Amino acid sequence: MGGDCLDVLVADDQPGVRYLLDIIIKEAGHRVHMAGNGLEALEMVRRIRPQLVFMDVRMPLMDGLEALGRIKKLSPETEVVMMTAYFSDDTIARSLKKGAVRCLAKPFDVEKIKALIKEFTWQQRNKEQLLAGAYVII
């Protein structure tokens, strides 16, 4: 794992989803951390400050939307992608309002996940230049 290695947190109460994302993220060359609910996700963010989080909306103990709001207050630079099997305009709006950068419907497309990871890797690698306005995105 080189300089482009990200710490990626996967927060989902379904072991199968965590397992699939674990494989995809590791194949992309990144470190994966797991949480089974929103409280665990919040604690992991406190400890490791991941660059990217994939988080389910509906989880026990603390749902993903509540965890999202707390994560963005704790670590504003952490990018959060929300995932849900109960996709609706309201869920998307609430997720984006709380700071999510994307919302994915479950079951998700593996190629879409790979593309998102590649995009976030590029953004992290080029963050300073992007902030300085060195790149023009069309």
Question: What does this entry show, briefly?
Answer:
InterPro entries: Bact_response_regulator (IPR050595), CheY-like_superfamily (IPR011006), Sig_transdc_resp-reg_receiver (IPR001789). Keywords: Kinase, Phosphoprotein, Transferase. This protein is of the alpha/beta class.
What do these coordinates show?
The chain is α/β, with parallel strands linked by helices and 138 residues long. It has one domain (7-132): 3-Layer(aba) Sandwich (Rossmann fold). The chain is 48% helix and 18% strand. It contains six helices and five strands; from the N terminus they run E-H-E-H-E-H-E-H-E-H-H. The chain has helices at 15-27, 38-48, 64-74, 89-97, 110-125, 127-132; strands at residues 7-11, 31-35, 52-56, 79-84, 102-105. Strands 2-1-3-4-5 form a five-stranded parallel β-sheet, with helices on both faces. Helix 3 (64-74) links the parallel strand 3 and strand 4 (79-84). The longest helix is centred in the C-terminal third of the chain and has 16 residues, at 110-125. The chain is globular. The model has no long low-confidence stretch (mean pLDDT 89).
List keywords for this structure.
Rossmann fold; five-stranded parallel sheet; 138 residues
| Main sheet: strand order | 2-1-3-4-5
Helix content: 40-55%
CATH fourth-tier homologous superfamily: Response regulator
Instruction: Name the structural class.
Output: alpha/beta
**How does CATH name the architecture?**
3-Layer(aba) Sandwich
User: What's the total helix number?
Assistant: 6
Give the tally of structural domains: 1
Strand content: 15-25%
What summary fits the major beta sheet?
A: 5 strands, parallel
CATH topology: Rossmann fold
Pfam families: Response_reg
Keywords: Kinase, Phosphoprotein, Transferase
InterPro entries: Bact_response_regulator, CheY-like_superfamily, Sig_transdc_resp-reg_receiver
GO molecular function: kinase activity
